User: Fold these one by one.
Assistant:
Number 1:
Amino acid sequence: ELCRLDLPLVKLPSPKTRADAGIELAPVETKPLGRTLSCNAVADFNQNRYAAVRPRVEGIVRQIRTDVGTTVRSGDLLAVIDSASLGEARAEYLSARALLDLAHKHWQRLQTLAERQIVPGKTLIDAETRFTEARINVSRARQRLRNLGLSASEIEAVEKNQDTSSLLSITAPLDGVVVRRQVATGEAVQPTSELFAVADLRTMWVYLQLYEDDVNEVRMGQRITFLVGGDTQHEYRGTVTWISPEVDPHTRTVRVRAEVDNADGQLRAGMYGTGRIEIEPPRPSLVVPRLAVQWHEGAPVVFVQKAEDLFEPRRVDLGRKQGPWWEVTAGVKLDERVTTTGSFLLKTELQKGSIGAGCCE
C-alpha cells in the first residue's frame, strides 16, 4: 500500500532549466508484459538435422566436389573415394549372381529329369542344396555392398552394368549447408573417418542454463527468445523441446533445450547470449521506462510533470520488469508524463526539501 503522505513538489527555476539539465519526458503507457525467466544460453546445430558424412570404406580420396559453406541437396555428390575393397565387393556380388543363375538352371534341369525318373532323387537334393547356398551367397554379397554404403538402386546398377569399379560416390545425406570439411584429395581415409558435416540451418538448438530453483516453472512447449550477446536487434524465437532430468553437480544448473527459427541464417553454433523463457503470457500493463523510477526513503518514486517547470513526486507500486519497462500497479495514470533521463536531478532537489519529512504509518 502506498504511503498517504504527499511529497513536496519540485519546481525548477524556469522551463529552460529542464532542457539545459537534459531532463527528458515519456508518457505512462500500456504495454503487454509477461513473466519471464532469463538465463545464459548458447546456440548449437539442430542435431536432428545434422549429419557427419563418413565413407564406410577404406580408400583414397580421388575427387572433392564441394567445400564448406556450400548449400547442398540430399543426394548431391560431395566426394569420390577409390576403394579396393569396394571393387572386390562388387566383383564378389557379380560372381555370386552368376553362380546363382547356373545353380538355378542346373536345379531346374535335374527337376525335369527326376520327374522322368532319369536321375536319382539324391542328385536332385544335392542340386537344390547348391541352389540354396548360391542364394545365400548372393544375399551375403548384397549385404556387404549395403554395408559399404551402396543403395538398393546402386546395387541394381552394379548387376545391370556389370560394374566392378572401385570408385565410391559420397553423397549428401540431407538438404543443408556443408559446415565442416576434413579431407583433401589424395588423402587416405578409414571407414570411420569424418569427411564432411552437413547441417540444415533453418532451425537451431539453444541450450539454456537454469538454476534448479527456477526449473520447476519450465514446461515443454513454452516460448523462448534468444538474444545474441545482448543484441536486441536479433531475437530468435522458438519453444522448449527438452528439459534435462539431472542437475549439474558443479554449477547447480539444469540444461533446457529449445528449438528456434533461423530463417535468416544469422544464428551460428557456439554463439552465446541470453535466453528468456515465457512463464506467463503477456497481458496489458501500465508501464513507465525503467529510467523513470528513483528511490526515495526506501520507496520507488516517479516524477510526474504538472507544468513546464513543475514536477510532482509520486510514490508508486512496482510490478514486473521487462526490457526497458517497469510495470506500475498504483500511483500513476495512463498518459501522464514522467521524467526519464535526468530524474536523479529532481530526486536531489526533492531530498533538499524533504529532510525530516519521513513517510507516515
Number 2:
Amino acid sequence: LEELLKSKKKILKVVRDETLEIKEKYGDERRTTVVAHGVKDFSMEDVIPNEQAIIVLTRDGYIKRLPPDTFKQQHRGGKGVMGLATKEEDVVEDLLVAMTHSDLLFFTTRGRVFKLKVYDVPQTSRTAKGMAIVNFLELGPSEKVSSILSLADLGDYKYLAMVTKSGTIKKVDIQDFESVRRSGLIAIKLRDEDALEWVKPSKGKEEMVLVSSKGQAIRFKETDVRGMGRVASGVRGMRLGRGDSVVSLGIVDSGMVNKGMLELLVVGKNGYGKRTNMKNFKVQHRGGSGIKAGKVTPKTGEIVYAQVSESVDERDLIVISEKGQVIRLAFGDIPVLGRATQGVRIMSFKEGGDSVASVTFI
C-alpha cells in the first residue's frame, strides 16, 4: 500500500483499471441528453406521461380519472363489478376516453362551454367518489355538465352539432371554441326550460340521427341545418310527443349507411340492448317525428342510450348502473335485430330497483 501511495503513476493505473472494470460491468447507453444551452421552464406536460385515461362524471357533478384497464372484459348478461361508489341517489352520467395531455371541452345544460386539461382531473381508485366538478369549472347553481369532448379528436371536423332535450338542433364552427376563457363561453342560446344535452363533431356534409327515449329515431341530411353563430338558438331537429325527449345525437356517413356498414345500438333502462342496421332507417326531412327504433315496454324500460357504430367494431362497451355496478363486454356480443324489437338482456342487476345509467365505448 505504501509503495502504491508513493507512486502517482501506480495510483492512476489503479484508478484506470477500476474505472474500466465499472464500465464493463455497469456501462450502458446514456439516458439523458447533454445540451449546450440552459434548460427552459418546465410545463406540466413535461412531467406527466401522455397516456390513455377514462374520465368519469356523475349526474350530481363528481368527476375522476381512471386507467383504461380498470374494468376487465366480461360476457353479455354478466353482473360486472362495482365501478364507482356514488353518493346516495347519485348516478354515473358520462364516460370519456382521452389522452392525459388533451384539452377537454365541457358543455353545460345552460348552453355554456368550459375547457380543462385531462391531467387536471384527479386520478383515483375504481371505487372512489371523485371530486366535485365545481372545483374545476365556474358553474352556476343549477348548471350541470351535459357533454364532454376531447379537442385532440376534433382535427378532421368542421362543426360542432348540438341538440337540446326538446329536439332543437344547431351547428357551430369548431374554430369558435379555440379560445375558451375560464368563466366559459356561450355555446347556444336556449329557449324557455330547454337544456343542451348532446354535442358532437361533424364535417358539414354528413347525415344526422336523433333518437328519443320513447323509441323514435329520425335520420336527415346535415345540410338541412345551416351553420350558425354561438349565440343562435338553432332550429327544430325532431318533433317529440308528450313526455318524450332526445337521448342521442349521431353523425353518420351516407355512403357507409348505404353499404350496410353502420348500425344503431340502443340500450334500455332495464338492461336490454340490440343493434339495428342503419339501412333500416330511411332519410327524412328535419323536424319530423321519425320512425320506430326500438320497442319500448315495461320490461325494457325507456331508451337511455343510443349510438351509431360500424358493424365490425372491435371496441368494448362499458355499462354502468345507477348504483355504480359496471360490466365491460364486446360490442359483437350484442345481436343484430330489427327496428321494432325489444332486444336482449345485456346486463343483470345485483340489487333490485337498479337500472342502466350510462354506456360508453372503449
Number 3:
Amino acid sequence: MNDNILEQASAEAILDHTGEGIYVTDLDCRIVFWNKPAERITGWKASEVVGRRCRDDILVHIDRHGNSLCMPGRCPLHRAMASGEPCAASLVFANHREGRRIPVAISVSPLFGKDGRVIGGVEVFRDESERMRQLEQARRIQRHALSAELPRKGVSVHALYKPQEMVGGDFYQVEATPDGYALILADFAGHGLGAALYTMTMRTLWQENSRHLQHPAKLMSRINQTLEKLTVGDSFATAFAAHVEPVSGLMTYSSAGHTTAMLRAVDGGVSLLGPTDLALGMLAETQFIQESLIIKPGELLLVYSDAALETADLAGRMFGQDRLAGILTQADPDQPDQLLTDIEQALLNHAQSPNLDDDLTMLTVALAPRD
C-alpha cells in the first residue's frame, strides 16, 4: 500500500503540498525547480524563474543589515554547495515580485548525485512576516534597556552591539556613580528571544543592586544569587563588571566565567585581565574575586562577548585570542569606534560570511582627555 502511494505521487506533487517554499538549483545557482508554496510566498511563478538565477532580479537575498548575499562566499546556498554541508536556518530578506522585501527563514543543503558529488543545492524557506513584527517590538524594548548615552567625560566608553537575530542574549550597561562609572557586559547562553528575555532580567537586577555598582564582586554575588533561582535548564550568563574612577584611573573589576578582557598599553602591548570565576546562575554560593589596576592615560580596555573569539571559519578554526590581540595592538587608541568596526570586519572575513553565528558585543574603556 505504501509503495503504491509513493508510485502514484511524484516528488514534485509531494513538495507542492508542503507549507514551505522550496527551490532547487544547479551548481551555478540556476533554478531548476520551484514549488507552489514558493510561488505563494514570493509572487514569482515557476514559469518565470526556472532557468534563471535567483540573483537575476528574482529573490536577490539581503541580510537584515541590507548587505547583498548574491555573491560567492556570502550566498548561503553557494556556501552549502561549496562546503558540502547544510546550513541551519537564518533570517534573510527576499525580493517579492511586487517589489517589496519579505523576511524569510531559510535552510540550505547541498544536493548530491548518485556518485556522491555535489550537483546542486536546495533552499527551503518560510514567510516570517508575522514573527518579524513581534520581534521588531521586542527589539525596540531591548534596545531601550541598553545604555542610550555612553560617557565621554572623565571616562570614555564606546560600544558595538550586533545581535545575531533581531534580539540577542548580550547585555551591557554603563552608569555614573558618585566617583566614577560602573559598567557590565553579560553574555547569556544562546541567542534569540529566549536569551533576550534573560537580558531584561539582568537590567532589573542591575537597577535593584545599584548601591553595589562601586563594588563589582559584591554586585556579581547579588546578581548571581537571584539568577541561580530564575534560570532554567542549562541557562547561565558570563559577565564582566567594573568600576572606573577617572581622577585616579583606579579600576576594580570582577569576572564571572567571561572572556578575558584585554588592556592595550600606550606602547601597543596587550595584557590579559584575570582571573575569572564561575558563570552567573550556576551556583548560588559562588564567591567572586575582585581585582584592581590603574588605567593610565592612553591605555585602552577591550571587553567583549565570546563571538569575538569563537567565530569559526569554514574549517572550524576559531578566530582566537591571538588574532584579536593583534588587531588591538595595531589599533589607534584615539579611534575606538574604528577599532570595534575593524574587529567586526575581521570576524566576518574569518567566517567568510556576511553575518556572525552569535551575538557580538564589545566595549572599549579609556580615560577621557582632560579639558
